[in-house]
């Protein structure tokens, strides 16, 4: 046996607790080949630092418990599909994963032929406020680490900056996969910015309650929803991108569809949708790109935005293009009522769809606001411009539907340029939001999505 490999395993055994059979399927880890590869299992209960000079292999579930995990800029953390790794930062613990634009921290597959699901994902668990919609963490988490939430909206789970999460989505049961980045009641003292989730098997980001704020997020070619929010999530996000690969969706058995946004308050199977506190994100400067009826588009694609199950929202200064179904759908009379009374709003944005622009529904058969009434409020009261299926080019983004290397910057003459900063009004007037003079996520004079830390050209091979 290679001497360096023996030394690596001995070092890993003394640094990390042993895992159970459920953590890594009782399989033998792949040989590291040298002492610069560290196998990571089980629980981390003392502060430690992961070095950019080593590669870390997540074996099954790894729990950071009452400790701080520091990860140096440029560090690579990999996972093998025989035991998809999940890094979970539990309540009271912190992650300090602060990469740079030149040296991001990368969680990725360890295989030459990488596939979605090779990595489990990254999970942050906090003590902020939720509404109890989910009784425990999803994804077959150890019962000792399955509870989340509390009363501390100013809770701090640490910092993630310039981080890329690739090929995530640990499938633990039918319709139950771990997301790229899962945020369970994470508090607003946590720092999240410059994060990209690439080729995930499930959602890119899911916010289960909490008050965490974020800037500069990218979801690229993930199979399910890119921005999924529920459980009374009530944070703020600015400058975020959602780009969908036309042929790649999470094929579910329950008839659900894949969307750029899917936002709920509660699942009525768990709690009434009128449960308080209520999901109420405040969002600005998103660019969300759907499949735009490209050849080979999956039948499982859904909506640009689906707001439902009692959620409130404000989304402003954004661009939504290329949805397969309605660009904006609002389900149920509770959620529609919030739009009708101006609690919710799609403000000062550009909206394009390939079929219907608007859709509304309620199980009772009678809606408080039909599609025509919704359109009147969106285009009138909320000053959003709409573009018919054939007129996506009128938005004048440079190359939004080039899935391999999308260019989301506005061209000269685009309606996304010369935005009035005064449009950041109401809840968008909060000091968190930069009062920029453009719509969408990308400043035409400074395209942050072209920086070195961002990875494009990652098409998923589908059957």
Could you give the count of β-strands? 30
Q: Termini distance?
A: 39 Å
Quick one: CATH class? Mainly Beta
Biggest sheet features:
26 strands, parallel
CATH architecture: 3 Solenoid
- Please name the CATH topology: Pectate Lyase C-like
Low-confidence stretches: 1-33
Number of domains: 1
Structural class: mainly beta
Keywords:
30 strands; single chain; Pectate Lyase C-like; 26-stranded parallel sheet; mainly beta; two-stranded antiparallel sheet
Overview of the structural elements:
- With 463 residues, the chain is mainly beta.
- The chain has a single domain (36-450), classed as 3 Solenoid (Pectate Lyase C-like), CATH 2.160.20.
- The chain contains four helices and 30 strands.
- The strands form three sheets. It has a 26-stranded parallel β-sheet that branches.
- β11 and β12 form a beta hairpin.
- The chain is globular and about 60 Å long.
- The relative contact order is 0.09.
- Residues 1-33 have low confidence and may be disordered.
Helix-strand layout with pairing:
Elements: H1 3-15, H2 21-24, E1 37-44, E2 48-50, E3 55-64, E4 68-71, E5 76-79, E6 86-89, E7 94-98, E8 105-109, E9 121-125, E10 158-166, E11 171-173, E12 176-177, E13 181-184, E14 191-198, E15 205-208, E16 214-220, E17 227-230, E18 236-243, E19 261-263, E20 282-289, E21 305-307, E22 314-316, E23 319-323, E24 328-331, H3 333-340, E25 345-347, E26 350-353, E27 358-361, H4 371-381, E28 385-387, E29 397-399, E30 407-410
Parallel strand pairs: 1-3, 2-4, 3-5, 3-6, 4-7, 5-8, 6-9, 7-10, 8-10, 9-13, 10-14, 13-15, 14-16, 15-17, 16-18, 17-19, 18-20, 19-21, 20-22, 20-23, 21-24, 22-25, 23-26, 24-27, 26-28
Antiparallel strand pairs: 11-12, 29-30
């Amino acid at each position: 046996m290679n001497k360096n490999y023996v030394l690596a395993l001995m070092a890993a055994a003394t640094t990390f607790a042993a895992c159970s059979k459920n953590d890594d399927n009782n399989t033998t880890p792949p040989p590291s080949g040298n002492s610069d590869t560290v196998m990571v299992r089980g629980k981390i209960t003392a502060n430690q630092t992961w070095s950019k000079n080593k590669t870390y292999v997540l074996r099954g579930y790894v729990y950071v418990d009452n400790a701080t995990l520091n990860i140096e800029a440029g560090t690579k953390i990999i996972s093998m599909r025989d035991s998809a790794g999940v890094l979970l930062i539990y309540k009271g613990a912190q992650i300090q994963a602060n990469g740079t634009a030149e040296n991001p921290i990368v969680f990725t597959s360890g295989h030459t032929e990488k596939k979605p699901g090779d990595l489990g994902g990254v999970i942050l668990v906090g003590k902020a406020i939720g509404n109890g919609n989910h009784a425990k963490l999803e994804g077959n988490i150890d019962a000792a680490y399955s509870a989340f939430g509390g009363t501390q909206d100013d809770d701090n789970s640490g910092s993630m900056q310039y981080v890329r999460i690739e090929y995530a989505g640990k499938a633990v049961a039918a319709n139950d996969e771990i997301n790229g980045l899962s945020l369970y009641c994470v508090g607003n003292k946590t720092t999240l910015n410059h994060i990209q989730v690439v080729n995930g098997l499930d959602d890119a980001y899911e916010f289960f309650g909490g008050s965490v704020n974020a800037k500069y997020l990218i979801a690229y070619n993930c199979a399910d929803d890119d921005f999924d929010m529920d459980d009374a999530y009530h944070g703020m996000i600015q400058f975020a991108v959602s780009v969908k690969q036309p042929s790649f969706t999470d094929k579910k058995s329950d008839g659900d569809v894949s969307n750029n946004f899917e936002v709920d308050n509660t699942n009525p199977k768990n709690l009434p949708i009128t449960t308080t506190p209520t999901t109420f994100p405040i969002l600005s400067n998103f660019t969300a790109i759907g499949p735009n009826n490209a050849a080979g588009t999956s039948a499982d694609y859904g909506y640009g935005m689906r707001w439902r199950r009692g959620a409130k929202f404000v989304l402003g200064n954004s661009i939504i293009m290329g949805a397969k179904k309605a660009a904006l759908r609002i389900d149920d009379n509770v959620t529609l009522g919030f739009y009708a009374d101006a609690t919710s709003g799609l403000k000062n944005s550009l909206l394009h769809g390939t079929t219907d622009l608007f859709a509304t529904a309620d199980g009772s058969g009678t809606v408080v606001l039909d599609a025509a009434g919704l359109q009147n409020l969106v285009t009138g009261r909320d000053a959003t411009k709409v573009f018919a299926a054939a007129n996506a080019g009128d938005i004048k983004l440079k190359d939004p539907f080039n899935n391999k290397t999308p260019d989301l910057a506005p061209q000269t003459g685009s309606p996304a340029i010369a935005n009035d900063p005064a449009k950041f009004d109401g809840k968008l007037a909060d000091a968190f939001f930069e009062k920029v003079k453009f719509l969408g996520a990308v400043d035409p004079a400074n395209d942050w999505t072209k920086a070195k830390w961002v990875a494009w050209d990652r098409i998923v091979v589908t059957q």
